[in-house]
Inverse folding.
C-alpha cells in the first residue's frame, strides 16, 4: 500500500513540477511576448506569406527583426514606423515581414537565414546583439543584403547603421537644465557602453550650457526594456532630489514615475508625450524612414554598397521631439537656434580637449569608444 | 453502494501499445484542441500547422536547425528524467546548464590554442558535466545528509547561476569577457579547436554526442546492476534499505549525475553553435524545457530523444509563424496544451475506465506487480 501511495504521490509531484517548470519557462519568454497578440493583428495587415516562391522580380521583399515588441512605443516601435513609411512609399512594390521579440545571440542566426531562404533580399536587424549571428548568416547567404543597427562589423553584403543621437541629446539637455530648480537631473541609463555614455555626456553639456550649476546623476538598470525596473530607478532618483528625469531606455516607465511625482521628463526614441503630458519636456528621437527608403531604393537599383552609415540631425535620422507645454518660450528659442547651428555644422557637441568628471582636461579620443563622463555627471562610467 | 456508470481501475501490466499510443494520441489531441482555438481566433489552423511543419522539417536546413535546438534538450531532458526516476526533484537543470557552460568555456579559454580538437572537445564537454555536477552538489549534499527540500534549493540556485553568468560578462572584467569589444560586453570566443565541427548546414556533431550520452544513461540505469539498485531506491527506499542498498549514496550519485547531464548540455552548447559564454545565447530556458521533455517522454530515457526533437521543432517554428501574421505566443500555447494532454494521458496509461457491466479483457488479469520493476 505504501508503495502505491508513494507512486501516486510522485505522479502528482511530477505534475506540479511540470506546471512550475512551464510557468517559469513562459515567464522567461514572456516579458516581451505578452504584447505580441495586440501587434500581430496590426502586423498581419502588412505582412505577407513568406512562401519562398518568389515569382516576380519587381517586388522587393524586406524583413525587419526586432528584439522587443514593436508596440513598445520606444526603440522597436520607431524602427517599425520606418518600416511602415517604406511600405507607404512603395506600396505593392515591397513585401515587408516583421519579426518581433526575437532573442539576441546565436539562435538569431537561424531566424536571419530563414528570412533569407524565404526570398527576402533586404534584411534589417535592429538590435546590437544580432551582430555576430547576422554576420554568420550573411556569409551563408551572399546574395542577400543585411543591415545591422548599432553595431560595428560589416562584410561584403552586410552594412551597419546608426545615428548621432548625441546631437538631439544635447538639445534635450538644454531643456532639462532650464527646467530643473533643484539643479539635480536624474538619468536612468541601460548599460555603461560608449553609445549610452555619449548620450549622457552630450545631455549634461547641454544642461550646463543653460544652467552651469546643474548636475546629472546616473543610475544603471542593466536592461534596455524593463518597465518596472526603469520606473523604480526613476523614483529613486526623484527621492534623491532630482526634479527632472532623463533616460536611455525603451519604455515610458521613467516618464510615468516623473509624472506621478510632479517632476519633468526628457524621453528617448519617440515622442512619448501621451504617457506623461505634464512632465514631458522633449526628447532625442529617431526617424528611420528616410534611411530605410533610401536603402531599399539602392537595393532595387543595384547600387547598394556595404558601408557604415552614421546619420544625424542634418540628414533627418535624428530628430528633436516637440516641446512639452512647460518648456518656456525663451528656452525653446534658445534650443532652436542651437539646433540650426548643429544642422548647418556651426556647432559641434563634443570639443577636443574635453573636461572630464574630475574637472581635468583630457583628449576627446574616439567618440565611438567613449568611456568617461564629462564634468557635471554624478555616477560611475563603468557601471 | 449505488451502481456507477464507469469504473476507474489501475491497469495491470501496461502493454507497449498503450505506453506508446497514449502519448502520441495526447500530442495529437493537443494539436486538435489548439487548432480549434486558432480557428476561433480567425486563423486557419491547417495553414499554421503546415507552416510549422515546413519550418521545422520542410527543408534540409530546417531539419538541421531543429536538431540543433533538440541537442541541448536531449541532455537537459535526460538530466531531469534520471533524477525524477529516483524521486529526486532536481528542477535546477537551468542553473546546472549555465554552470556547465561557464566551466566548459572557462576551461577552453584557459587551455587556449594548441590543444588538438580530438582532446579539446572531450575535455570541454566533460568540464561542462563537472560544472553541472558541482552546482547540483550544492543542493544534493544538504538533501541527502540534512533532508533539505531540493525543489526549493535547486530552483533558487537557477537564479544564482544566471546572476553569476551575467556578473562574469556584464559586471566584471573576468577572463570570460571579450576584452577586444568595448561597445557592448560579450563573451570571449573559445579557441577554434574547442568547437565541434559543423557536419550538415549549422548542425554540429554535437547531436550524436547528445544521443550517445542519452543511450549511455539508458544503459546505465536500465541494464546495469548499479542501475537496478537505483531503480529499487526509486521505487521504494524502504525495500532498498532492507536489501542492503546504501540509499543516501545512491541518491547523491544520481543527483550529481543529473547535474552532470545538464552540465554536458551547457558544455555542448558552448562548444557547438554558441562558441562563447554569451548570456544572450544561453539564457533560453533550456533547463526548464528539459523538465517538460522528460515528463512528456514518461521519464523514458530513449523516448526523450524524439520528444526533444518535437520540442526543438516547436521552438523554431515561432518566428516562421510571425511571418504569416500569427503571434509567437501560439507556440507557447501549443506547448502548454501538449503538456496538459500528456499529463492527462499519463493517467490513462496507468488506469483504465470501463463500464461495470462489461468484463475487462485479459490484459488486467495479470498481476500488477511487474510494473514496479519494469526497466527504464
Amino acid at each position: 500500500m505504501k508503495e502505491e501511495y508513494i507512486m501516486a504521490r510522485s505522479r502528482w509531484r511530477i505534475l506540479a513540477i511540470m506546471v512550475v517548470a512551464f510557468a517559469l519557462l513562459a515567464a522567461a519568454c514572456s516579458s516581451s511576448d505578452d504584447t505580441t497578440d495586440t501587434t500581430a493583428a496590426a502586423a498581419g495587415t502588412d505582412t505577407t506569406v513568406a512562401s519562398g516562391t518568389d515569382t516576380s522580380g519587381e517586388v522587393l521583399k524586406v524583413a525587419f527583426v526586432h528584439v522587443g515588441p514593436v508596440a513598445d512605443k520606444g526603440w522597436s516601435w520607431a524602427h517599425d514606423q520606418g518600416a511602415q513609411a517604406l511600405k507607404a512609399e512603395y506600396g505593392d512594390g515591397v513585401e515587408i515581414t516583421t519579426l518581433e521579440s526575437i532573442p539576441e545571440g546565436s539562435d538569431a542566426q537561424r531566424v536571419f537565414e530563414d528570412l533569407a531562404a524565404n526570398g527576402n533580399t533586404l534584411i534589417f536587424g535592429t538590435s546590437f546583439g544580432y551582430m555576430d549571428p547576422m554576420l554568420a548568416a550573411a556569409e551563408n547567404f551572399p546574395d542577400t543584403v543585411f543591415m545591422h543597427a548599432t553595431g560595428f562589423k560589416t562584410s561584403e553584403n552586410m552594412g551597419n547603421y546608426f545615428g548621432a543621437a548625441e546631437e538631439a541629446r544635447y538639445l534635450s539637455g538644454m531643456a532639462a537644465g532650464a527646467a530643473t530648480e533643484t539643479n539635480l537631473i536624474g538619468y536612468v541609463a541601460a548599460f555603461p557602453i560608449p553609445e549610452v555614455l555619449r548620450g549622457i555626456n552630450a545631455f549634461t553639456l547641454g544642461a550646463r550650457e543653460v544652467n552651469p550649476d546643474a548636475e546629472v546623476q546616473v543610475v544603471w538598470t542593466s536592461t534596455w526594456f524593463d518597465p518596472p525596473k526603469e520606473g523604480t530607478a526613476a523614483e529613486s532618483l526623484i527621492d534623491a532630489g532630482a526634479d527632472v528625469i532623463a533616460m536611455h531606455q525603451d519604455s515610458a516607465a521613467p516618464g510615468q514615475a516623473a509624472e506621478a511625482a510632479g517632476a519633468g521628463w526628457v524621453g528617448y526614441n519617440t515622442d512619448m508625450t501621451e504617457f506623461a503630458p505634464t512632465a514631458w519636456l522633449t526628447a532625442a528621437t529617431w526617424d528611420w524612414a528616410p534611411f530605410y527608403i533610401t536603402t531599399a531604393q539602392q537595393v532595387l537599383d543595384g547600387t547598394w554598397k556595404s558601408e557604415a552609415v552614421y546619420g544625424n540631425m542634418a540628414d533627418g535620422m535624428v530628430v528633436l521631439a516637440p516641446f512639452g507645454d512647460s518648456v518656456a518660450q525663451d528656452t525653446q528659442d534658445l534650443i532652436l537656434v542651437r539646433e540650426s547651428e548643429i544642422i548647418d555644422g556651426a556647432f559641434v557637441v563634443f570639443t577636443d580637449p574635453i573636461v572630464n568628471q574630475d574637472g581635468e582636461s583630457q583628449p576627446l579620443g574616439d567618440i565611438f569608444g567613449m568611456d568617461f563622463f564629462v564634468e557635471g555627471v554624478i555616477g560611475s562610467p563603468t557601471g | 453502494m449505488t451502481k456507477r456508470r464507469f469504473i476507474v481501475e489501475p491497469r495491470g501490466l501496461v502493454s507497449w501499445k498503450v505506453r506508446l499510443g497514449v502519448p502520441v494520441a495526447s500530442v495529437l489531441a493537443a494539436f486538435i484542441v489548439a487548432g480549434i482555438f486558432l480557428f476561433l481566433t480567425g486563423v486557419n489552423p491547417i495553414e499554421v500547422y503546415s507552416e510549422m511543419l515546413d519550418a521545422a522539417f520542410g527543408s534540409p536546413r530546417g531539419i538541421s536547425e531543429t536538431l540543433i535546438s533538440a541537442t541541448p534538450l536531449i541532455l537537459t531532458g535526460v538530466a531531469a528524467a534520471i533524477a525524477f526516476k529516483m524521486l529526486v526533484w532536481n528542477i535546477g537543470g537551468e542553473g546546472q546548464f549555465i554552470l556547465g557552460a561557464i566551466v566548459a568555456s572557462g576551461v577552453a579559454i584557459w587551455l587556449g590554442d594548441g590543444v588538438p580538437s580530438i582532446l579539446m572537445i572531450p575535455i570541454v564537454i566533460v568540464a561542462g558535466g563537472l560544472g553541472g555536477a558541482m552546482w547540483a552538489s550544492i543542493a544534493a549534499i544538504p538533501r541527502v545528509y540534512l533532508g533539505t527540500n531540493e525543489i526549493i534549493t535547486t530552483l533558487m540556485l537557477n537564479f544564482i547561476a544566471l546572476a553569476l553568468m551575467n556578473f562574469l560578462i556584464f559586471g566584471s572584467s573576468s577572463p570570460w569577457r571579450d576584452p577586444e569589444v568595448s561597445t557592448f560586453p560579450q563573451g570571449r570566443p573559445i579557441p577554434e579547436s574547442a568547437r565541434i565541427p559543423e557536419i550538415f548546414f549549422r548542425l554540429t556533431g554535437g547531436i550524436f554526442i547528445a544521443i550517445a550520452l542519452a543511450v549511455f544513461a539508458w544503459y546505465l540505469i536500465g541494464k546495469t546492476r548499479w542501475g537496478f539498485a537505483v531503480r529499487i531506491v526509486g521505487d521504494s527506499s524502504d525495500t532498498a534499505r532492507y536489501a542492503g542498498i546504501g540509499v543516501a549514496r545512491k541518491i547523491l550519485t544520481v543527483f550529481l549525475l543529473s547535474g552532470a547531464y545538464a552540465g554536458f548540455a551547457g558544455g555542448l552548447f558552448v562548444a557547438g553553435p554558441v562558441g562563447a559564454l554569451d548570456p544572450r545565447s544561453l539564457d533560453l530556458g533550456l533547463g526548464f524545457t528539459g523538465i517538460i521533455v522528460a515528463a512528456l517522454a514518461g521519464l523514458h530515457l530513449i523516448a526523450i530523444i524524439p520528444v526533444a526533437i518535437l520540442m526543438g521543432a516547436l521552438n523554431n517554428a515561432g518566428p516562421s509563424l510571425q511571418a504569416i501574421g500569427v503571434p509567437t505566443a501560439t507556440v507557447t500555447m501549443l506547448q502548454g496544451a501538449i503538456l496538459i494532454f500528456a499529463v492527462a494521458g499519463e493517467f490513462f496509461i496507468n488506469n483504465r475506465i470501463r463500464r461495470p457491466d462489461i468484463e475487462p479483457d485479459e490484459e488486467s488479469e495479470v498481476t500488477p506487480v511487474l510494473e514496479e520493476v519494469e526497466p527504464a
Q: What stands out?
A: The two ends of chain B are 40 Å apart (CA to CA). Chain B touches chain A through 61 residues (CB under 8 Å). Residues 73-295 of chain B form one domain.
